[in-house]
């Protein structure tokens, strides 16, 4: 609901000023021409009058007085600079840009994750379930999603629409990007997406924090950019990388976890490394990340101000133009009537 405020309310004290002027100042007098006669002294002696200076006072009509009073009130209120405040509006400022980088290699189909009830699920299903809970708690953050295996591709650009992000996450599945693990390319793509988003942001949004949460269950198997080099670039760009290593670190071969490289990535970017051998540990990893990256959601309320003093000035001008035009019209009509009446008498 809008409200009306006066910027200089103390100027309302000027309202009674015309009354003070009328009370303590002399009235304006207009001198008129007089007829000079040689027998003036004889005339005043006969009438027994004392001569004095003569003057006539102009008296305003009722409508003129009303117009003057209304004009003065409008003028004083215009000087107080009245402003109208709009209804409060809410401005929401998003906190962080969080990019989820999810491994879709063939090993993510391993059904070796056990929940608290003893039910087994694949690594990818466990990751999706935990990511849905994690995303639901990130009010104010913009989330993105990168999927990688033989290659990395952007599944979801940064968005504050969590429901859309979750839908696209559910549609992701292993085999969409191949069977191997190009970890360095995935980090490199995340850096590129952050740079593109930085160009599209307004000045007020460019200081938002940038976070990557990387979930993988294997080592890098042939990226164009090594994971450590990509991590160094991310550190320069101010991007923090947290890595969640899924699966058994004792695994050997292509699916073995390269914990040395993973630790180096997080050390270079200021992130942390988490090991998740089951769903409980995966839940705990995302809870810890939520504590490390608390919400930065901020909302501010503001009101738009509209000044109204110019409308009062316009009203005053229009009133005086209307009054002047009406006065001229009445005077012209009276002149015509007088001329017509004199013409009839002459006839």
From TrEMBL:
Against Pfam families, the record matches this protein to:
VWA (PF00092)
Q: Which UniProt keywords apply?
A: Cell membrane, Membrane, Transmembrane, Transmembrane helix
Q: Where is the VWFA domain?
A: 97-289
Record field: transmembrane: 308-330
What is this protein's record name? VWA domain-containing protein
Q: Which organism is it from?
A: Psychromonas marina
Lineage, please? Bacteria, Pseudomonadati, Pseudomonadota, Gammaproteobacteria, Alteromonadales
């Amino acid at each position: 609901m809008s409200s009306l405020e006066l910027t200089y309310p103390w100027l309302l004290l000027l309202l009674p000023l015309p009354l003070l002027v009328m009370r303590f100042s002399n009235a304006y007098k207009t001198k008129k021409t007089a007829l000079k006669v040689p027998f003036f002294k004889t005339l005043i002696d006969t009438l027994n009058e004392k001569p004095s200076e003569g003057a006539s006072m102009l008296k305003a009509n009722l409508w003129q007085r009303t117009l003057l009073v209304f004009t003065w009130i409008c003028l004083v209120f215009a000087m107080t600079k009245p402003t109208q405040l709009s209804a409060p509006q809410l401005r929401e400022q998003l906190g962080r840009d969080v990019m989820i980088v999810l491994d879709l290699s063939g090993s993510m189909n391993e059904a070796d994750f056990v929940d608290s009830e003893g039910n087994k699920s694949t690594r990818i299903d466990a990751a999706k379930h935990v990511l849905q809970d994690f995303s639901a708690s990130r009010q104010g953050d913009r989330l993105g999603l990168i999927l990688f295996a033989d290659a990395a591709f952007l599944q979801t650009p940064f968005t504050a629409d969590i429901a859309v992000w979750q839908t696209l996450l559910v549609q992701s599945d292993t085999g969409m990007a191949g069977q191997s693990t190009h970890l360095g390319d995935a980090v490199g793509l995340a850096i590129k997406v952050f740079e593109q988003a930085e160009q599209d942001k307004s000045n007020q949004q460019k200081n938002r924090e940038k976070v990557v949460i990387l979930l993988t269950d294997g080592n890098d198997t042939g990226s164009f950019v090594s994971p450590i080099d990509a991590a160094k670039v991310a550190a320069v760009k101010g991007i923090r990388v947290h890595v969640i290593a899924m699966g058994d670190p004792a695994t050997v071969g292509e699916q073995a976890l390269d914990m040395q490289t993973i630790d180096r990535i997080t050390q270079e970017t200021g992130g942390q490394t988490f090991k998740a051998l089951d769903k409980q540990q995966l839940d705990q990893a995302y809870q810890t990340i939520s504590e490390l990256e608390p919400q930065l959601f901020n909302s501010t309320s503001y009101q738009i101000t509209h000044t109204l003093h110019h409308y009062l000035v316009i009203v005053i001008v229009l009133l005086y133009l209307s009054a002047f035009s009406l006065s001229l019209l009445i005077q012209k009509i009276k002149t015509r009537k007088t001329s017509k009446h004199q013409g009839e008498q002459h006839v």
